[in-house]
Amino acid sequence: MKRMGAIILFISMFFAAACSKKSEAYRQLEHIDSVLFANFPDSAKSLLRGIAPETEADSAYYNILKTQTNYLLYSTDYDFRDIDFSIKYYQKHYNAQKLSNAYYYKAMIYVDHDSLTQETVLLLKEAEKLSEETTDNNLKNKICSALAYLNGVLGNYGESLKYAKKEYFYAKKLNNNRDIAYGLLRLSTNYEISGMKDSAVFCINECNKLVQYINNDDKAFVYTLLGESFISTDVDSAQYYFVRALKHKKSSTAYQNLMEIYFAKNDSTAAKRYCDSALMLAWTKQKIGIYSQLAQKYYDGNDIADLKAVTDKIISTHNDILVEDQNKFFLEMQRKFDFEKQQIVYNRNVSVCFLAIIILFAICIILHLRRKHEKQLTIQKELEWENRNLQLLNDLCEAKRIITDHELHIRELETENSKLAELSDNQEYLNTKRHISEVLESGRSIYHKIENNECICDDKDLWVHCIFYCMYNVANKVMVVFGHYRNLSIDEKIFVMVDEAFSKEDDEVAKILDISPITVRTRRTKLKSKLL
Fold first, then answer.
1. Nearest by Cα to 69 from 85, 45, 46
2. 522 or 406: which carries more pLDDT confidence?
3. CB 498 within 8 A of CB 504
4. Is 140 exposed, middle or buried (0-12, 13-18, 19+ CB in 10 A)?
5. Cα separations (Å) of 531 from 225, 431, 474, 500?
6. Could you tell me which residues are beta bridge partners of residue 485?
7. What are phi and psi of 485, to 5 degrees?
8. How confident is the model at residue 287 (pLDDT cuts 50, 70, 90)?
9. Cβ 288 vs Cβ 317: under 8 Å
10. Using CA atoms, how far apart are residues 34 and 487, in angstroms rounded to an integer?
11. CA gap 192, 201 in Å, rounded
């Protein structure tokens, strides 16, 4: 028993090792994961094109990396079925790190679709909970960053600041200057919104030390924040940072701040030039602030005509905002409808796939049962053939016994004949011998008629002579046939002899016995009752 237990344990360990073995595709996906971690999404996308997932594990991992790559490249080529497949796989084959990643990127798909719903928050919270089971600080960092952004958009500034601090904490743990710079940038923004001016200035100055690790668009944002931190204390430094921000990216906020600086310097020409640039880039609600600054300037300068023109623009812009909000509302409704429609289509496709799997499973069961039934039929046929062969063997043995008995009988007759030959002088013997010769001769004539398919019904009295002749001359042929039946009459023996011993067809038997083919078949059927 101990040996058997050891063998079972060995086999289990062997199969476990075989199942856990990573495929070549999976090892390539791990390499692509490291490429994405190094922030090279273009290279990752090229590498993904050459991957052909071999197993479910490969497909689940592949779908996460594909979604991550599209997100980092700002692509909208998302498919919920991909990320949902990964989620279901890692729920079944539990992997906290990958399942957390899957929840995170599904939430970011919703964010990219401007669908900041309760489900989006719940997905990120589920991702956060799972990430706590791992040591992946990069994963924790990006989840906290997403939660900080989402809470800021939803107006939960306290929660946004809490997650911004967590984002910075994990960035420091990673010791990644890029993540630290972005953590400081988000902290500065949150402190500014919360009215914590000193903390905001400190964070943006710290961020400035790592600005080379930030992309150009975000550098403009950093320099704009730095300019705003100096605008009330050091106008020249503020102007320097605003100009530097514009070198990286044209920004309405930087232009607006420069307009304010040049108005303070009474340089109306430069101020209006920056004002026009700001208005060209500003979004509608921001234009209200720019026009309000102009209105205040014209009011202070008692410039009634310009004040009226700016006031009209403010009113017109307010109307534009109302129209824009209305259009945005309808657009959001359409997006929501399209998104829900996509979800319905996806759920229907899932149902169809599930139904197809059930049908396929049912077909497999039916095929299995059919194959099993066919196998049973084959076994049954083989048994029937074996039984038939045994019956034939028994029949052959019985025929051999009958032939042996008749041969013995013939030898006895020959012995009797030899004894009778000794008594050939006896007149009675001679008469008997002559009578036997006459019987055999008449039997032979009937025998030849049967062979030649001639009618023998007129010689019915001589049928018994034919039977005697056959038993004397072709006993092997006739006695085997008679041995299959019991209690046959003379007529029945002649019928059996013609039908079986001579192997005549139905019409030939009918002609010889002067009966119809139907009668031939009827007699044959009746004779079955006399079979041994």
1. 45
2. 522
3. yes
4. buried
5. 116, 39, 22, 13
6. 531
7. -125, 170
8. confident
9. yes
10. 98
11. 8
